[in-house]
Structures are given as C-alpha cells and as structure tokens.
Amino acid sequence: MALGRGLGELLGEVEVAYENGNGKDTLEKIGTIVEIDVNLIKSNPNQPRKIFDEDKLKELSDSIVEHGLLQPIVVVQNSDTSFTLISGERRLRAHKLANLEKINSIVLDIEEFKLRELALIENIQRDDLNIIELAYSYAQLINEHNITHDELSKRVFKSRTSITNTLRLLQLSSYVQQLLANNKITAGHAKIMLGLEEEQQKLVADSIIGQKLSVRETEKLVKDLKEPSTKKVQKNKKTTNYDFKPLNNVLKTLKDNDLKVKAEKNYFKIEITSQEDIEKISNYFRNTL
C-alpha cells in the first residue's frame, strides 16, 4: 500500500470490485472482510479523535441494530490473535453500546510503522474532527514522518496556508484550546489571541463567552491589551505649570550672553548652537557658584 493513501479510497475499491464482479481477487490484494469479536479489537493508541458525542453514538447504535452495519471497520492484525483498529472508532463503540458481539471488518496487511499515518490521514479527512484534534493530527504527521507543510498539503488535500494556520492554534493555552474544541469560541476568535500571555488569553476567552463578543469586538479588546503601558501613562499624566519668576535674573543674564533660553510649564531649556555657547554657560555657573 502506498504511504498516505486514505482508507476511504480502499473502501471505494471494495465497492467497485463487487460492482464489477471481481470482488474476490481485489479483496485478496486489499484485505478480507470478516466478522471479528469486538473484544479482540484494540482501539488505535494513536487515534487523534478524542471527543465523541454520546447522543450521536446512541443514534448510530440504534441504526446498526435496525439496519445492520453498512460500512465495515478497518483493522490490522497483531502478532497475537488481537487486532488494532485503523478506521471506524464510532462504529466499534456503537457495536459495544448495542452489546453486539461481532463486527464486520476489513483486515489489512500493512506494515506496523504505517499504522499511525494511515489512521491520522483517515481522521483528518473526516468532517466531524474538531479543529484542535485536526491540529494535533497535522503535528503528529509532520513530526513523526518528517514531512513539510507542502508535502502534508498534498497528502491530505488541504491548502498549505490552511494547515499552517491550523497548526498555529496549538500555540494557544490549553484553556483556550479546550474552549475551541468544545465550540465555545470560534477559530476566528482564537487566532486573535495568538501572542498573548496565558492570563490574557483566559481574560479574552472569558470575555468572548460572557459578553458574546464578535470577532471584530475581540480584535479591539486584544488591541487594547497589547497597547504599550507607556502610552497609557502618558495619557493619564498631567502637566504641571511651574512659576519661573525666581529664575528671572538667570534668564536675563543668559540671554544677555546671546544664549537662547526658554522656561515654561515644566522644563528649562538652553539651546546650544556652538562650542562658544557651552563656554558661556560654563563661565556663568563658575562665576555664580
């Protein structure tokens, strides 16, 4: 099997094979459909999908009881009598929920090291994988199989930009990631929080939920948080006007020496335009001290 092929493609080949009347030959190449005891099937430890809707599982379970399993699960046989699940976690769980002892399965003969990639690619192609699970799946494929974003883009049929933006969500705090995974906030909201400290992320996330902030309103909130503290100090700082009358003699003397002097509000300024000006100022202070 070529590395990176989706299981949907394999299952499609099985269906086409039966339609063309040569199902047996094709199954010998792809795998065999058999009934397997559900207790012999181990969940894939590399399964990136972690959240399962219990109500939807119950609906699927009831449907399987009434209509049977329309699409078999896919497994690989271990060195003992057990099997490891590649695709069909929900279908397997639904069978157990209905107390069904056996489940129709396609047994694939693939190398062990391909198992993780096959499972990840299969799950990435699912519509019900939340965006955080998707991001972790991307990261696993990139890190463990040493592939670039461009190579991953070709394998999972997603744009490189989409993959990169999704991966950036893993830079968010676990608190924000959990809210995003549970659809409490949107990816649009989450992206705005990138770069904020963990406490700031929590503040913004709680504000989004509590105040039902739009993405635009969230952008304004984050902009205010990022505003440099120096600007805030300057806004609140009041200028004091001082009385310079006690310095009138000093001002007059310096001006008489052709020095440009200015005194107002909260500063006293002597403009220097040449080395001669510095000598004049030095002579003044030397004579007055």
UniProtKB/TrEMBL annotation:
GO cellular component: chromosome
Keyword Flavoprotein: no
GO biological process, any: chromosome segregation
Keywords from the named record: Chromosome partition, DNA-binding
Domain of life: Bacteria
Keyword Ribosomal protein included in the entry's annotation: no
Gene3D superfamilies reported for this sequence: 1.10.10.2830, 3.90.1530.30
InterPro entries assigned: Chromosome_partition/occlusion, HTH_ParB/Spo0J, ParB/RepB/Spo0J, ParB/Sulfiredoxin_sf, ParB_N
Gene Ontology molecular function: any one: DNA binding
SMART domains documented for this protein: ParB
Pfam families: HTH_ParB, ParB_N
Family: Belongs to the ParB family.
Protein name: Chromosome partitioning protein ParB
